[in-house]
Amino acid sequence: MRNIELLAPAGNLESFFAAVRSGADAVYLGSQGFNARQNATNFSMEELGQVVEFAHAHDVKVYITLNTLVKNQELSQLLQALNDLVKANVDAIIVQDLGIFWLVNRYFQGLALHSSTQLTVNNTLGIEYLKKLNVEKVVVARENSISDIKSMAKTGMALEVFIHGAMCICYSGQCLMSSMIGGRSGNRGRCAQPCRLTYTLLDSSNKELNGEIGEHLLSPKDLNTWDILPELIEAGAVSLKIEGRMKRPEYVATVVRAYRERLDAVDSALDDARSIQVETELKQIFNREFTHGYMHTNPGQELMSYKRPNNRGLQLGRIDRATENGFAIRLKEDLRVGDGVEIWVSKGGRKGFEITSLEQEGQSVEEALKDTTVNVGFGGRVFPGDRVFKTSDISLNQKAKSSYENQDLSIYEKVEVWISGSLDKPLSMRIQTESGETVSGETEQNLQEARQHPLDEEIIRKKMRFGNTRYRLDELHIDLGANLMIPISQLNALRRNLTDELERGHQVKDVYSELELEHIEKELSSKITSSKEAEKLVAEVDDEYQARAALGAGADLVYIHMNRVRTSIELNPALLNEEDKKRALYILPRIIRESEIAALVKNLKKLKGNCAGFIAPSIGAIELLESESLGPIYGDYALNVMNNLALRELSNRKLAGVCISPELSLSEMLEMRGEMLLEAVVHGSMPLMTSEHCVVGAVAGDKHGHHCKMPCKQGRYSFKDRKNYIFPLLLQQDCTMQVLNARELCAIEEVHSLLAGPISRVRLLLRERTEDDIQVICKSYRKVMNSNRLDASQVKKELDEISPYGLTKGHYYREVE
Hints:
Blueprint: E1 5-9, H1 13-22, E2 26-29, H2 45-57, E3 61-66, H3 75-87, E4 92-95, H4 98-107, E5 113-115, H5 124-131, E6 135-139, H6 146-153, E7 158-165, H7 177-182, E8 199-202, E9 222-224, H8 229-235, E10 237-242, H9 249-264, H10 272-285, E11 290-291, E12 314-323, E13 326-330, E14 335-336, E15 340-345, E16 349-354, E17 358-360, E18 363-365, E19 367-368, E20 373-377, E21 387-392, H11 394-401, E22 413-421, E23 426-433, E24 438-446, E25 448-449, H12 457-463, E26 471-480, E27 484-485, H13 488-504, H14 514-525, E28 536-541, H15 544-552, E29 557-561, H16 578-581, E30 584-587, H17 597-607, E31 614-616, H18 619-627, E32 633-635, H19 644-652, E33 657-659, H20 666-669, E34 677-684, E35 687-691, H21 695-700, E36 717-721, E37 726-731, E38 737-740, E39 744-746, H22 751-756, E40 759-765, H23 771-786, H24 792-802, E41 807-808
Parallel strand pairs: 1-2, 1-10, 2-3, 3-4, 4-5, 5-6, 6-7, 7-10, 9-11, 22-26, 28-29, 28-40, 29-30, 30-31, 31-32, 32-33, 33-34, 34-40, 39-41
Antiparallel strand pairs: 7-9, 8-36, 12-13, 12-21, 13-20, 14-19, 15-16, 15-21, 17-18, 17-20, 22-23, 23-24, 25-27, 34-39, 35-38, 36-37, 37-38
């Protein structure tokens, strides 16, 4: 069998110990900055060096999550962080930002590169792009199936696959919901998890469709592949990744131990009783119910935890009756004093508490077994039939704690020492470590005949204490002539010198000095003159009818989607006249499934010669267009370009232009520079999520696997949140779903500032609007762009009147965290 890596999360030092002691082959963790779990404790650079040294001493690799987007003003901190990571001798960094890939390849070639799931790589095209960036391992999208993994493994790239833990409902790297709603960006490691909140599904008549299904429409179950691990390994996964840097160390210990056991016995079936026990432990430590995710098919409703977005624990049963001091219940699982319990009270919500007393047959007991009835002490009001869940198990937690309690990062290496010498000759010392490193030397003075205290084993052994170093004496060999002595200071000095020599072999020099880092920063910050073209107004639309409406109302260019909403027409460039074709570009699907590449190529070839270029929303799309010699190619805002380093990387790929990230503020946009034309989104309903899970199909279409009643063909749908904001849904022809913002972006007052700066094109997002609305919006922006004297604020009021849900400035004046 291939060498398969079990990769565990470590959000703090206790979780790190839990992972290492429970059988992880590698851990991934964040330093304090530039990682996608900023709310975890994370590690200082000083701690990191010790952590890496400890891990390596236990044959465990350490990968650092540098998987967030970086702003231009953070370049200095980024350079210092990369330099520190080289010094810390980490095994690899996990990266999202295209600019960091460029920077590491140019200045920090000693750092191994892994691509993050935040890069949204879900096909062989994305892998081929990353090969050119010297990436050694790719974390594939959670939405990939086992069949996809088989295809992707044929590229020869090492594949890292999530096997357990929380799932995002949106493709990682494509979620702006937390960012746009609350200013906390998932792409910057600060996701507020709005997907775990409650929503109501509405049809076009605002009828509520949730029914009895539940309100947590965007909250998936937890991934659990323990029982199908052999399938993943056979498919070609070489690194098996457990999610959970925000989880408790007990969780890390329990889950790692379970998967270590399964991995070690992957070629044989485990005992049925043990399988049931492991399944119970995994459920007990944390679950929102479990799913295989997309491993075999799109599971529809079966993916989701509609009723509850957090830990369910294990169901103990239903309350038989209330008692004077609590309640009686027949147990489905064992229950102990010290366990945590939650009651889903039919009147009054949920009540959690720790078990302090149990009684059976009138006697106080410490433990009650499953299939028995027990009286549980509880001071609150309950009702017969209320469900009771065990949310924590004291014995399971104690077992887990043994892996990380009373641990420290001290590393001791046993050494063997040889001492030899004869009269009137220097004393010789040789030290050999467990790993085989050897150093030797001699004293400056010679051995002399002893007058009072000759050297003996007792004296020498006392002086072979290695103090605060990593070394500890294991064996001592002495070959000295009789009745010899030497000043103890000589013996101590020789031991210190040889120890220092060993220590120097464990030190890594700075890749760059502080002065050199400042020089690199200055070089990278030098002004680049951005490629500029005559300012252009761009309308992003769904189909060719909308394109004609936009061009007729003043748009200079139209970007037409290839992956359209379900109610739209099929791809039809023939609807455009020859002049319009010269101003039309086509946007490739944001998500290109492996099974759909051939059909996409066929459609692209039909468009060649019938349009002015293509918009690539992913690195896989760039790779496809390049391989088919289709162009010119422009990068979409879904590429998450937030800094000038990313522009340098895309310049290497000969892109003609790119639309920069909508998470940048106006002032940050004006600092962008690259050897290509730049574009900014100024208007429209921003896609907040792109999801493989279609809520409309699952809730209104009874979707299970391939079965769906296709309600998407019957009209429009939206979400209503707990504050009554309405989020329109785009249901696309490939069955992906996009959630749009509840407020339309409108930066019409900022257009002149953008165009006076590095921005050449301003884009309007109009694909869900009527042709009449498209004409009004395009004409409004055209008027403002054509006149410096026109009061843009007045025009904005007119746009507000036709906006379904109101306007927002987005991040133009609110920098994202």
